[in-house]
From TrEMBL:
This is ABC transporter permease subunit. One of its GO terms (cellular component) is plasma membrane. GO terms for biological process: transmembrane transport. The lineage of its organism: Archaea, Methanobacteriati, Methanobacteriota, Stenosarchaea group, Halobacteria. InterPro entries: BPD_transp_1_N, MetI-like, MetI-like_sf. SUPFAM superfamilies: MetI-like. Keywords: Cell membrane, Membrane, Transmembrane, Transmembrane helix, Transport.
């Protein structure tokens, strides 16, 4: 199968997945209790005003007509208006995307910096205390709920020790970089780093444990192959063999998981953003749930689905390019 056919097939599969998410979200809104017009206007609205809004929003149309109108709007990028703030949903989603991307990328960097060296040490020192410690760390990381870890980090490092700040960040990454470029000041960047450290550690813990186990498993498999023995017999230093050859051959599945998990982090940051009051999509989704703001909820979830599918396609294409055997299969 050529790369072009592979991409066309994956894009069609992605479109089908996104359509399924849109359909499920519309179905949930349709079967949820409560009149949308009443939710938009509040309990004190008159019946005449409620009927006017129902007619204006097309809520008195048959359900299939409402579905096709909604689907058509999604196709052209019209996500509707928030029932709570009467703002365009796409604008409310886009303005929160940078903060969520910042947190997801920071958590990924934390995971890479900690997990890969830990996995290499665990693989090269099997059945030793370092291996047992890495295994225990992985088990704790996978088992620990994010919300509990976030609360403990706030309590210990922010409240008791006072090392890190507690509260909503006063400056974003983009603003910090602009300040650095325009005025040569690193103050805003340091403030941003202080505020993102605890959320990134919280969100990246599970990811760190997963990559550690994956790195260890891949390294163990590679260390048992003949080319490693041949390289060592030629007198190559163990460090060179370990990091230049063995780790390099282990990176293909790790890169794949990194890409897939980045998409997962975009959607899985809801709890972390809520705990740390991080102004991203997750916190906005929780607010929309509390207000039963269905257009905003639908817009956020559909956007996350699109981002997740896009990242999956890019990672599959990269893996397909690096490993042509996948394309042949």
């Amino acid at each position: 199968m050529t790369m072009g056919k592979f991409l066309v097939r994956r894009i069609l599969q992605g479109v089908f997945v996104i359509w399924g998410v849109i359909t499920v979200m519309f179905g949930l809104r349709a079967v949820s209790p409560g009149d949308p017009a009443t939710l938009m206007l509040g309990e004190g609205a008159t019946q005449e005003l409620i009927e006017h809004v129902r007619e204006q929003e097309g809520l008195n149309e048959p359900i299939y007509v409402q579905y096709f109108d909604y689907l058509q709007g999604m196709i052209v990028g019209d996500f509707g208006y928030s029932w709570r703030s009467n703002r365009e949903v796409e604008a409310m989603v886009i303005e929160r995307v940078p903060a969520t991307i910042e947190l997801a990328v920071a958590a990924t960097i934390v995971a890479i910096v900690i997990a890969i060296p830990l996995g290499v040490i665990s693989a090269t020192r099997r059945n030793e205390s370092a291996d047992y410690g890495a295994t225990l760390f992985s088990l704790l990381g996978i088992s620990t709920p994010n919300f509990w870890l976030g609360l403990m980090l706030i309590l210990v490092l922010a409240v008791w020790a006072g090392i890190f700040p507690n509260g909503r960040r006063p400056v974003g990454f983009g603003q910090a970089i602009m300040t650095l470029v325009q005025y040569g000041s690193v103050y805003d960047l340091l403030v941003w780093l202080q505020y993102i450290t605890l959320p990134a550690l919280t969100l990246g813990t599970y990811f760190t444990a997963l990559i550690t186990r994956l790195t260890r498993s891949g390294m163990v498999d590679e260390l048992g192959k003949e080319y490693v023995t041949a390289s060592q017999a030629k007198g190559l230093p163990s460090v060179l063999v370990r990091y230049k050859h063995v780790l390099r051959n282990t990176m293909i599945p790790i890169i794949t998981v990194l890409g897939l998990q980045l998409g997962t982090l975009l959607g899985g940051a809801v709890i972390t953003e809520t705990v740390f009051n991080w102004p991203g999509l997750g916190l906005r989704l929780v607010d929309a749930l509390g207000a039963r703001d269905w257009p905003l909820m639908q817009g956020i979830i559909v956007f996350i689905a699109i981002a997740f599918v896009t990242i999956n396609i890019v990672v599959d294409a990269l893996y397909n390019y690096l490993n042509p055997q996948v394309r042949e299969e």
